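Whiteboard transcription, Tuesday session. T.W. wrote the structure tokens on the left side:
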């Protein structure tokens, strides 16, 4: 079936300006989606049939849809229009989605009439329809009809006799080719394929007899050949399964194919200027359900072996759009077996050199960022079945028909459409976190967002509540692959606390909500354990300090391999495995795990490392590699698991299982923290527990496959001393994966550093606050939600803190005062604000300008000017002076000598991060 190859998409993307505030991103009004995708994923209002759409084509801004239905009705929520009769056919305006005045009824005397194929002539004047029907608007026909498009009337003189269902059509200037279930045409033998005169319907001498139904037909670009698709195993007695090429005039076979599995068929064939494409469906084990790309000479250039019954393929402007219910694209190194994906897009050919063949086939081009959602729907539960591109008023529309009853989660049956303009869907909100393991650096990281029609997104990072981003990061993501993105803030100061939020913006300017606030306090000294893991080259480092599900941040230096929680493991378990404030994650031993966020391959050299604590007697997997995500893996090794008795086993698979076990009487289910490491490389495999070598073997490799890291659970079937449970019950912490073999000294060093002294941070919120106002000398402001500072006329702010004593064995290393400017206009100041001790007595309820307390004369710290806009500010304080206040109730005053006031939030405010607080960092003496 010839697609709308004449349409070309010209989407121009330009940046009109840059917004200065959060969410203010100036972009052109026209849609801007990630090229080469030409359509948004935002569904448009479209009239819908009460049955199934099997066939579509278009001409002159009108879309024709055929199938098995009796009426069409307005889209849900349209607010106008009533159901109209539509007997197996409807013509719709491409731009509005509304029915046109063209009404055709395809009927049959016995059985159920259906329209299965539609194709428009080259001159756009005639619509050909195939299926199973005996009349069109009462005009007798026999499963094939020609419709005059201008008058919307069947051509009575065109009535070739096809005694069985016609399932596929293709047309040239003078010939109409048909495929289907028939064995004769006009009483002459024509088994499953035939050709008739495009004007008169007279049977042509073309003979391409097949032994099973024909489902697809396409004329070659030069008009000399015809590609046939279907269920057949032979054409004109030549062995060729599901696909064949025949002479366009005679039907003589010119090319056969026997590399499509016997339990698979070809459902559709399409063409563009560079070649041909097939959509395939199968049933049973070993099926081929994907797509094939053919060269102009009909040789195979690539094969996409995704599983999920491809119904239709439509090449358009360098992109192959397809309808299917793809659920497993593991062979394409994409998503594993799981949820169904109904509408996909990929380039028609590889960019650059094609990858090397795997199992004799070159993988298909990678999926692109176009991912409207549908559902199985009614009938066979196939979902989308057919597609067409139409143009009206310079806008292109991708129309989709099928069995679905939902599009993007909203009720819509049988028909939907997407435009080349008007992208209105914003990306999902990023899930962010932040950490710091050494002075002068904070790592901000987030799980990349998902946008249905934009794979390249712009992320803006906002610090301390500012409305101006401190950094901008570009990152790619797809629905099934959302890796971590990160940015290092190297302008931070030791001992001070910072907050961050992140937004995602697509190319059309649609911006997500701000992520939740994440905070981090910069240490005054290097945190020994995590810094060593990072410097030793970890490319995955999960510390389990996350505060929300389902994201597990990667703290490695640039690895950006975050994790996804499954079934909500318990967060922030204390104490963790290493000293300091880092926490662990708890697993229930029945269903909870974490898997890495993107598919990867593991080389022959690597190290896996984790800490665990448990008293389970059911064993379970601590860490391992597998080829699935949330579902149980079919390939799985490079793993450390616990037996029911608490022994540990490190194993790989390289044709057989190769394992190292701890001693028969070694038990590590004693509810204490233990450190386990497995390495493999040119020297073989080694297992370490608590810094000690527990065994080696000579295995230097494992079976290569692409997959995901798992922590807390995955398949363990057929492994030695398999425990009762695949899932681990207990706590896990500090998981790391390295692309190198750690030495015994490095492993022992990690174990020893777990108890190294670390900073302790105390955040002390003001217990009481107020300010005084010289202009209202008798007013008290103890319940005010904002505080003020100015020299003349005077505002002074007073803050009271219950300052903790230093933890045992530690001293104060750094101190800072944190406050947040309010949202009122001009809240910042050009003047220097000083922090001084309050030496006199005061109270929030009673202190006024006339009763203000005495202040100390030596500032503890100062800040030279504060910009306008509500944002968090940090004032570094004199460590020795604050040390003298430890263990006391201390008052701090904010003063200025200038005339420009500063307004900040008080502890009574409900604004985010509003309350003034002291940030105290303690460390070893």
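and on the right, the sequence the group agreed on:
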């Amino acid at each position: 079936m010839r697609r709308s190859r004449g349409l070309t998409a010209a989407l121009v993307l330009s940046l009109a300006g840059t917004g200065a505030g959060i969410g203010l991103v100036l972009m052109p009004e026209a849609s801007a989606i990630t090229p080469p995708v030409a359509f948004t994923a935002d569904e448009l209002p479209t009239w819908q049939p009460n049955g199934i759409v099997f066939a579509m084509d278009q001409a002159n801004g009108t879309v024709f849809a055929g199938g098995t239905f009796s009426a069409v009705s307005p889209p849900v929520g349209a607010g106008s229009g009533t159901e109209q009769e539509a007997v197996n056919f409807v013509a719709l305006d491409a731009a509005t989605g509304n029915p046109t005045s063209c009404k055709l009824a395809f009927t049959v005397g016995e059985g159920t009439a259906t329209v299965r194929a539609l194709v428009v002539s080259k001159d756009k004047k005639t619509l050909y329809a195939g299926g199973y029907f005996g009349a069109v608007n009462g005009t007798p026909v026999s499963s094939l009809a020609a419709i005059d498009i201008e008058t919307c009337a069947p051509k009575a003189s065109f009535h070739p006799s096809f005694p069985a269902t016609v399932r596929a059509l293709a047309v040239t200037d003078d010939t109409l080719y048909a495929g289907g279930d028939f064995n004769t045409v006009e009483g002459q033998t024509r088994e499953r394929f035939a050709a008739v005169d495009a004007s008169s319907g007279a049977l042509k001498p073309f003979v391409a007899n097949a032994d099973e139904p024909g489902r697809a037909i396409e004329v070659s670009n030069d008009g000399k050949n015809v590609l046939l698709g279907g269920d057949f195993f032979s054409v004109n007695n030549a062995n060729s399964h599901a696909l064949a090429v025949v002479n366009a005039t005679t039907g003589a076979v010119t090319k056969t194919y026997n590399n499509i599995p016997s339990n698979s068929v070809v459902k559709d064939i399409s063409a563009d200027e560079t070649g041909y494409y097939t959509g395939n469906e199968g049933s049973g084990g070993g099926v081929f359900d994907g797509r094939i790309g053919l060269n102009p000479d009909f040789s195979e250039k690539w094969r996409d072996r995704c599983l999920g019954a491809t119904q239709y393929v439509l090449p358009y402007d360098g992109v192959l759009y397809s309808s299917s219910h793809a659920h497993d694209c593991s062979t394409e190194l994409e998503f594993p077996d799981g949820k169904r994906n109904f509408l996909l897009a990929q380039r028609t050919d590889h960019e650059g050199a094609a990858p090397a063949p795997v199992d004799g086939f070159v993988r298909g081009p990678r999926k692109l960022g176009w991912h409207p959602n549908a559902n199985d729907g009614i009938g066979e539960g196939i979902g989308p079945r057919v597609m067409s591109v139409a143009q009206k008023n310079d806008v292109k529309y991708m129309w989709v028909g099928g069995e679905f009853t939902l599009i993007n989660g909203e009720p819509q049956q049988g028909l939907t459409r997407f435009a080349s303009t008007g992208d209105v869907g914003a990306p999902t909100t990023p899930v962010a976190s932040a950490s710091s393991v050494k002075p002068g650096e904070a790592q901000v990281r987030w799980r990349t967002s998902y946008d249905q029609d934009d794979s390249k997104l712009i992320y803006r990072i906002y610090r301390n509540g500012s409305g101006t981003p401190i950094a901008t990061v570009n990152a790619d993501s797809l629905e099934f692959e959302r890796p971590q993105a990160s940015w290092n803030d190297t302008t931070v100061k030791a001992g001070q606390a910072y907050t961050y939020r992140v937004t995602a913006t697509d190319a059309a300017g649609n911006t997500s909500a701000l992520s939740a606030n994440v905070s981090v306090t910069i240490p005054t000294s290097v945190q020994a354990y995590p810094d060593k893991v990072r410097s030793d080259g970890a490319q995955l480092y999960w510390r389990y300090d996350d505060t929300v599900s389902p994201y597990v941040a990667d703290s490695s230096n640039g690895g950006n391999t975050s994790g996804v929680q499954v079934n909500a493991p318990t967060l922030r378990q204390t104490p963790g495995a290493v000293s300091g404030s880092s926490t662990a994650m708890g697993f229930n031993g029945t269903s909870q795990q974490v898997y890495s966020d993107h598919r990867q391959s593991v080389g022959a050299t690597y190290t896996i490392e984790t800490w665990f604590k448990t008293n389970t007697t059911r064993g379970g997997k601590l860490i391992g590699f597998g080829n699935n995500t949330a579902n149980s893996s079919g390939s799985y090794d490079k793993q450390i698991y616990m037996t029911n008795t608490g022994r540990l086993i490190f194993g790989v698979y390289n044709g057989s299982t190769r394992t190292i076990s701890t001693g028969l009487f070694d038990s590590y289910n004693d509810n204490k923290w233990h450190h386990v490491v497995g390495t493999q490389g040119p020297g073989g495999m080694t297992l370490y527990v608590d810094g000690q070598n527990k065994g080696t073997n000579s295995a230097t490799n494992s079976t290569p496959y692409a997959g995901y890291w798992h922590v807390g659970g995955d398949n363990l079937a057929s492994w030695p001393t398999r425990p009762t449970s695949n899932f681990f019950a207990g706590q896990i912490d500090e998981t790391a994966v390295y692309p190198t073999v750690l030495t015994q000294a490095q492993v022992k060093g990690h174990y020893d550093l777990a108890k190294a002294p670390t900073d302790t941070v105390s955040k002390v919120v003001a217990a009481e606050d107020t300010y005084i106002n010289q202009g209202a000398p008798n007013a008290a402001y103890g319940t005010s939600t904002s505080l003020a500072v100015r020299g003349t006329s005077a505002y002074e702010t007073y803050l009271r803190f219950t300052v903790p004593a230093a933890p045992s064995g530690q001293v104060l290393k750094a101190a800072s005062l944190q406050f947040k400017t309010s949202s009122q206009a001009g809240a910042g100041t050009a003047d220097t604000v000083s922090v001084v001790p309050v030496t006199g007595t005061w109270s929030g309820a009673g202190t006024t300008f006339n009763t203000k307390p005495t202040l100390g004369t030596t500032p503890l710290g100062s800040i030279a000017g504060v910009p306008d806009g509500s944002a968090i500010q940090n004032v570094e304080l004199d460590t020795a002076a604050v040390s003298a206040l430890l263990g006391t109730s201390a008052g701090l005053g904010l003063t200025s000598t200038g005339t420009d006031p500063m307004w900040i939030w008080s502890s009574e405010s409900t604004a985010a991060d509003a309350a003034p607080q002291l940030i105290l960092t303690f460390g070893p003496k």
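Someone added at the bottom: DSSP finds three helices and 71 strands in the chain.
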